[in-house]
Amino acid sequence: MITLHYNPGNASLFPHLLLRELGVPFELAFVDRDAGAQSSPAYLKLNPAGKIPVLIDGDLVLYETVAIGLYLADAYPQAGLAPAPGDPDRPAYYRWMAQITNTLQTEFRAWFYPAEFTTDPAGVPAVQAAVGARITAAFERIDALLGAGPWLLGERLSAADLYLLMMTRWGRTLPKPARLLPNIGAHAARLLARPAVAATFKAEGLEAPFV
Fold first, then answer.
1. Which residues, at least 6 apart from 5, have a Cβ–Cβ distance to it below 8 Å?
2. What three-state secondary structure class fits 12?
3. Do 72 and 122 belong to one domain?
4. What angle do CA 148, 19, 64 make, to 5 degrees?
5. Is there a single domain that holds both residue 38 and residue 125?
């Protein structure tokens, strides 16, 4: 049985979405961030960085959000959520997964926790303003590349779309929410209409507005 260590709305949301779209049996293990459970000795044995999520699949213990997503999509090829090696869409899939983790998820760390990125408390607003501008610019580039889609790989839904949905959700906190970009907003709406996505948000107790 697969176990996903998660916290609602956290970076675990992407692998949770993916597991439900894959339709494979799994169980959720809640990590109480408010109580510091991610820093407990037991959790640090799973992920020495003390970050969420962690996926356990038999003897495999895996962390890093994008690594979990790549692993799951390849482990269940029958779901078609990752182009197979040798497929012409595989390079674009890699590019999207790398772009989302490097230019969005990484930047959001500084957006949500700007004090970690300066030794001068007075500089926190400037850090957040700068990173907010970079995230907005990244979303605008993605919106242009996505076009009418409907998905990042054109007519083909992939794990990258679920990853982008998590970023779009996080982007609701920006001065210009990501959902206001026409192609990203339509992309999110299409995903939110999927039963597996609705079930994920319900299971995590997340309430509208979802993005």
1. 12, 29, 31, 43, 46, 52, 53, 54, 55, 56
2. coil
3. no
4. 90
5. no
Among 144, 146, 208, 136, smallest CA distance to 171 is for 136
Residue 85 lies in a domain: no
pLDDT digits (tens, 9 = 90+) for 83-125: 999 999 999 999 999 999 999 999 999 999 999 999 999 999 9
Note if the pTM is more than 0.85: yes
CA-closest candidate to residue 156, choices 83, 97, 94: 83
CA dist., res. 201 & res. 198, Å (int)? 5
User: Would you state the pLDDT for residue 137?
Assistant: 98
What is the model's pLDDT at position 118? 95
Measured in Å, how far apart are the chain's first and last C-alpha atoms?
A: 31
* Structure tokens belonging to residue 174: 């920006």
Residue pair 158/82 in contact by the 8 Å Cβ criterion = yes
